[in-house]
Amino acid sequence: MELANEPIFQWISQFAYSPGTVYLVIVGMMLLSAVGLPIPEELTLISVGILAFVGKNPDVFPPPYAGAPVVNVHYAAIIAFVAVVFSDTLIYTIGRVFGRKLLYHPRVHKMFPPHLMKRVEEWTHKYGMYACGIFRFTPGIRFPGHLACGMMHFPLWKFLLIDGIAAAISVPTQIYLLAHYGEPILKKLREFKIVLLVVLVLVAVYFLVKKLRQRSAEKNA
């Protein structure tokens, strides 16, 4: 397995045999992500899936000692699911308790300008209980979306039902897919990374040439 020779996997494999720490990190990262910090929860889920994949292949990623505990994919999926739903509900509760005055808090106002919150509220009015699921599948507006559901006193049981269903679909799936089919998926991600890098370079060159032409035109004028 050629992935085992890459430095990033040699470094990350050490955590695959510290399941207790990984489970605590899952909860902590989900809470930080829920309160609006720029830590995509997808990054945490992918990392946990990779660790479970490493733990399932001790012949490729040797454990520090015989019988070392590994990250259990089932435990990781359950903990991640519970942490995600709990975090979403925490934000919902904050919105419900403090109401619209939260929108005037400097931090919230800076992170989520009025036009974004207005769009979130419009979606909540338009889609009703299904808005919870839309927010869960839409990175970037999860925090304001769950906050809006609370501010608008969306019924808690409906929020838990829709958010729970959406989380059950999206959260464990990412962990299980990487844990069971890690090698081909990671190879594709690596190929995608190379393609993305090439595209970004081309875009940067395009804008650089465009900027130079504009300056040249202004100078000639």
UniProtKB/TrEMBL annotation:
Transmembrane segments: 21-39, 73-94, 160-179, 191-209
Membrane-protein topology: Multi-pass membrane protein
Keywords for this protein: Cell membrane, Membrane, Transmembrane, Transmembrane helix
Tagged with keyword Membrane: yes
A Pfam family that the UniProt record links to this protein: VTT_dom
Subcellular location: Cell membrane
Keyword Chaperone listed: no
Main location: membrane
Domain VTT per the UniProt entry, residue ranges: 40-177
InterPro entries, alphabetized: DedA_domain, VTT_dom
Name under which the protein is recorded: DedA family protein
